[in-house]
Amino acid sequence: MLQRCEACGAFAYPAREACPACLSAGLTFVDAPRRGALLAETTARVPSDVYFRERAPWRIGLVRMDCGPTMVAHLHADCIEGAPVLMSFQLDKSGQAVAFARPERETPNMADDRQWREMTADPKFRRVLVTNGRSLIGQEAVAALKAAGAKTVFVGVSEPWRPFAGEQLLRGQAGIEVVTLDAADEKSATDLAADIGGKVDILVNTTEYVRPGGLLDRRGTGIARDEIDQAYLGFINLAQAFGPSMRTRGADGINSSAAWVNILSVHALANWPAFGAYSASQAACLSLSHCLRAELRPGGVKVMNLFTGPVDTEWFQTVPPPKVAPRAVAQAIVSGLRGGLEEIYVGDVAEEIRQRLAANPKALERELDR
Amino acid sequence: MKHSLRTPYDGIVMAAPVTIPYARYSIESAQWWIGRALSALVAKAGIKASHIDGLCVSSFTMGNDSGIGLTQHFGLCVRWLDTIPLGGASAVAALRKAARAVQARDADIVACVAGDTNHVDSFRLTLENFSRFNQDAVYPYGAGGANASFALIARNYMRTYGFTREDVGRIAVAQRANALRNPHALMKTPLTIEQYLAARPISDPIHLFDCVMPCAGAEAFLVMRDETAASLGLPAARLLSTIERHNAFADDPMQVRGGWAMDVGELYAMAGVKPDDLDVVQTYDDYPVITMMQFEDLGFCNKGEGAAFVRQHDLTIDGDFPHNSSGGQLSAGQAGAAGAYLGLVEGLRQVLGEAGPTQVKDAKLALASGFGMINYDRGLASGAAIFAGPAR
To answer: What percentage of chain A has pLDDT greater than the value 70?
Structure first.
């Protein structure tokens, strides 16, 4: 995204309030062509900032974008002066969007670049906790993270003596460790954190508690209480158990903690009355995730929210398609971590709600009431 | 584009060059340093503070104060006031404004002063908060500061014209030799080209001796009409010409020339002199590669011939091209905005014959240039002035 002048079409960077070509105030952020050429590079060996001092030498360069502006950028190690590069904005450890230049063509082990990994939360080589192995999403997430090169995937299972479908996919597999975890139980979360808290680089919160119904079709607060217990208080238990050690381990050498992932219903953003109370529990989790993001930021740990439409599981049986395959959610977790994103939308429903919410939130509210 | 004929600086002079000796670190405030410079100005000119009726101030570290606050702070009552935040171009800009003010009789005696302190963390804070573009689009990229920004410019410039580190190093080495004659220079040991080349890298191709030493200090001079100087019995230098330019050559993808190249013809035409006529030259040397650029852009050689020029000339005080006779910022120190004044004040001492141990023999005609404000990817401001001592 770069600013482009609505009046004359010129691109501008750094962000400003008037077009340097025609002085128009109509500058809007648009997806800009990503190609440029590396004009010059340098390696900062004695940075003045403590963060970069720890990570020096640090390579940066000046890139002339094909669309016009010149950008200071972090450089992938395979970028060569004079050669074309592809630019993207990445979120750095402080949550700021920064320009990152990569070679135009794929190079071997491209994602392993030291500076690139600093901007992302690639599961490769990292240790991950998936909090709920009983769910389809949890099981698919374990498989996808393992396939993405995670060193160890811990997978939480409540009451592990109770058998469950898909158990054989988790037990006895190299690099997968089943651990006891019931997120809704404060003691269970604390006990597990005491065991493995210092080894969790990425936490994927797959807690899932879906029940239909809104307000008037239910009697009392029993189900709502369960929804809050499982999703919202479960989130708090996990955050209090694992958050503090993750925050202190954000710069812990190559095995540093990197990210916290929440799987949320896209109806956290706009209430879906058919699953109205569930939507509200998801909204509560979304709000809490922003708090967690702010609190983890000083440690350089990212919080990624993955928004999904109804997933193809038994609790959404009555919902007509399109529904999201649990595998698609799992793949999105991996790609979001690889990109170091804060938000990712999975499936057509989630994408539609994202767009309609931006375009006309009142219309969306009416449409969901059908 | 042809410029209209500018009003000449007839009868406009500069006097009373003062330098408050630099300190690597100071627990004093910028206001303290500026106060010392004003006090020294008054003492040197033999006037009372109440005779100063114009004030022009530059500083990076005086907090929320601007010139207006300083008038009360120092008990000055002026009828002309300016605060110039143009970094390394501040001195030339101050001189230009002050000259026109006294010419138009808006003021009679303008004190131009720059001073900065250097607390232990001042420099880093200045870097972090330098400009909005810098905060948004430079600082988060490795926090290499000006070193990294100039490294990119230097790398491209050296590659484009085939300069080596050794070529650029000649400038730094010659300035160190000059600094050894300046008792106030912070750098007190000789520097050889071998040591220059062997220095540790800071941000390739910038190495340690390409970098200035941030410090505290202050510089100042007075601007007035010649009859004022005569009535005070003050030795004074005549201002012959100036140029100033901002955001020149914005379409150059990377900076290989400064605004001087746009205005250099007018600089010499207005002064009625040629580059060869100059007895001493003071360039803005935040990095020696920028000095190399000035040798080209100020007409001492053609673009791309800077390396040959420094190979062919001796840049020391007794050499055939005396340059940055105080040791410059590279060896005397960079006292924030006073770094902009260093060359102008030293050049003034030279043409007044007051430079003492760094005096260039028979210096009558001097040029001082400024360069400032790497807002984003390049230095935006450039300026230069030519002035002549009473002997010319």
So the answer is: 100
Q: How far is A347 from chain B (nearest CA, A)?
A: 34
C-alpha to C-alpha distance for B150 and B138, rounded to whole angstroms: 12
Q: Are B198 and B209 in contact (CB under 8 A)?
A: no
Cβ B351 vs Cβ B366: under 8 Å: yes
Kindly state the tokens that stand for A300: 């350089």
Chain centroid to Cα B352, Å, comes to 18
CA distance B349 to chain A (A): 36
Q: Which residues, listed in sequence order, are joined to residue A128 by a DSSP beta bridge?
A: A153, A202
Confidence of residue B3 (pLDDT cuts 50, 70, 90): low
What pLDDT is recorded for position B1? Answer: 41
Task: State both tokens at B325.
Answer: 């006779």
Distance between CA atoms of residues A151 and A121, nearest Å = 14
Cβ neighbours of residue B317 closer than 8 Å, sequence gap 6 or more = B177, B178, B181, B325, B358, B359, B360
Closest-approach residue (CA) in chain A for B122: A48
In this prediction, residue A5 carries a pLDDT of 96
In sequence order, which residues have a C-beta less than 8 Å from that of residue B1 and are 6 or more positions away? none
Q: Which is it for strands B109-116 and B216-225: parallel, antiparallel or unpaired?
A: antiparallel
Residue B4 clears pLDDT 70, i.e. is over it: no
- Contact between chains at A43 and B206 (C-beta distance less than 8 A): no
Residue A40 to residue B127, Cβ atoms within 8 A: no
Percent of chain A whose pLDDT exceeds 90? 90
Is B377 an 8 Å CB contact of chain A?
yes
Distance CA B165, CA B196 (A): 9
The three-state secondary structure class of A68 is: coil
Distance CA A323, CA A347 (A): 8
Residues in B touching A52 (Cβ below 8 Å): 142-144
Probe site for chain A from B203, B210, B246 (most A CB atoms < 10 A): B203
- DSSP bridge pairs for A346: A308
Q: Indicate the SS3 state at residue A93.
A: coil
Q: Which of B143, B153, B201 sits opposite A52 (nearest CB)?
A: B143
Calculate the alpha carbon distances from B272 to B242, B265, B266 in Å: 12, 10, 9
Contacts of A97 in chain B (CB under 8 A): none
Closest CA to B41 of B219, B232, B217: B219
Q: How far is A242 from chain B (nearest CA, A)?
A: 29
CB contact under 8 A, A71 and B124: no
pLDDT digits (tens, 9 = 90+) for A67-117: 999 999 999 999 999 999 999 999 999 999 999 999 999 999 898 999 999
Closest CA relative to residue B333, chosen from B216, B170, B210: B216
How far does chain A reach from its first CA to its final CA, in angstroms? 36
Distance from the Cα of residue A200 to its chain's centroid: 16
pLDDT (tens digit per residue) in B163-190: 999 999 999 999 999 999 999 999 999 9
Quick check: B76 and B52 in contact, CB under 8 A?
Answer: yes
| Bridge partner residues of A73 (DSSP) | A61
Helix (H, G, I), strand (E, B) or coil at B45: helix
**Predicted local distance difference test score (pLDDT) of residue B145:** 85
